[in-house]
Amino acid sequence: MNLEHKFSALGTEVTVTDGTTISGYASVFGLSDQGGDTVEKGAYGASLAKGRGVKMLWQHDPAQPIGVWDEVREDAKGLWVKGRLLTDVAKGREAASLIAAGAIDGLSIGYRTVKARKDDKGGRLLSELELWEVSLVTFPMLPDARVGAKGEDPAETALREMAAAFEGARRMMARD
C-alpha cells in the first residue's frame, strides 16, 4: 500500500486564532500541482463517507500528531479543513508559533490513490483518494490552498472576494 503526499500552501493570510484553531483548504480541485497531479471534484467523497478520522500531523510524521481536524469536507472549491492545534503537545505549540510568525505556510495531504487516469499533459487526474492525513509542512506543492481565520467560512470568503473584485472593477471604470 503506497501512501502519497500532496503539499499545499496556506497562503499569506495564515492565522492561528485563540492560539489553536486553524481552517482552510488542504486541496483545491482542478488545479495541477507541481507534480502534475490534479484532484477532481468528489475525489474525497467515498473516503470521507467512511467516517474515519483524518489525522493532523507535523511534516507527515505519524509519530508526531499535533492536533485534531474537527471538520473535513468537500465543497465546490476543494477539501476544506478546520481543526485545533494541541498546545499541550510540544510540536503543537511549535506549530502555532511558526504559523503565527509566518514561518510555516503549507498544508499537505497524505492519501492512497484509488482511481486515477493520465491526462494529456503527462500528469494524473485523481478521481478517488483514500484520505489518511493532512499535515502542516514547510514546503507546499499546491500554492492555492490556504488557511484563514477561526470561523472563516468558504462561502463568506467567496462573497468577500467577489465584492472586492466588483469594487476593483468599479474603481477601474471610474478612472476611464
TrEMBL record:
One GO MF term attached to the UniProt entry: peptidase activity
Keywords: Hydrolase, Protease, Viral release from host cell
Pfam families in UniProt: Peptidase_S78
Alphabetized InterPro entries for the sequence: Peptidase_S78_dom (IPR054613), Prohead_protease (IPR006433)
GO biological process, one term: proteolysis
SUPFAM superfamilies found in the cross-reference section: Herpes virus serine proteinase, assemblin
Ranges of residues in domain Prohead serine protease: 17-152
Claim: Protease is one of the keywords in the record: yes
Keyword Aminoacyl-tRNA synthetase: no
Protein name according to UniProt: Prohead serine protease domain-containing protein
Species of origin: Yoonia rosea
